Amino acid sequence: MPTARLELFEKTAHWPAPILNDAMTLFDLRSLLLAGSLLLATSTASLDAQEEKLEEFANAHLLVQTDWLHQHMGDVGLCVVDVRSARDYASGHIPGARNLPTEETFASKGPKGQIGSVEQLGKLFGARGIDDNVRIILYDEGRSTAAARVFWTLEVHGHRNVSVVDGGFAKWKAQERAITRDRPKPTPAIYKVGQPSKALATMEAVLEDVGDPDAIMLDSRSKREFKRGRIPQAVHIEWTENYTSGDPSIFRTPQELKLLYTSAGVTPDKRVHAY
Q1: How many domains is the chain built from?
Q2: 47 lies in which domain range?
Q3: Between the CA of residue 94 and those of 27, 58, 84, 180, what are the distances in Å?
């Protein structure tokens, strides 16, 4: 049976059946054990204070703050990628960011949301001047699964140096940081895509683990979708519960997330198939 690779974002199972929507991502349970004690507020001042909270995660480098990004935007070997739609990107984006809408990483054939082929992904990233040696910083609008989905896609294919911006573009705007409509013109690169890893669970692996007390099927869809049909014995934690309710919305504290998952039986000793 496959074992989960625990990081700030956790492994995702891909179930090629109509009952399920696009694959989601889950927080690393080991990082949740380092939970902090303070709750997040939603004012700009409180968001700035949150910059210091990442040290409470075991793999804090996988989640970057807007302040960090602002300070490192010009770093050599750093590539910022906006995964929002082309229309949203054109209306304004973080300076220097390249646009790669999440949907473009999906397979062109087969069930909705399947991960793209090695050849497809290589062309997508290479055309944007991204090679497999850079650190990729992903952002979406905020309170979304778009950046996390691309994060997972890259991890499946072996790109380990990738992070997600906490709060996304919404937080960047709330802090009145620079926004541009200028499009960078990167030189095409060669992006070497690795073969899919165990972060992509097969149908066979999931079927084998259904009913196993050492495995958890974690359904991150809406309550309505969960009630309409789910993998047998799946537990439900809607993906929105990972975020604060304020505007802009950011990830909840390690302590809150630890309580959220352990209360549902999602613990570090389990193999987790999240969908």
Answers
A1: 1
A2: 42-174
A3: 26, 28, 12, 6
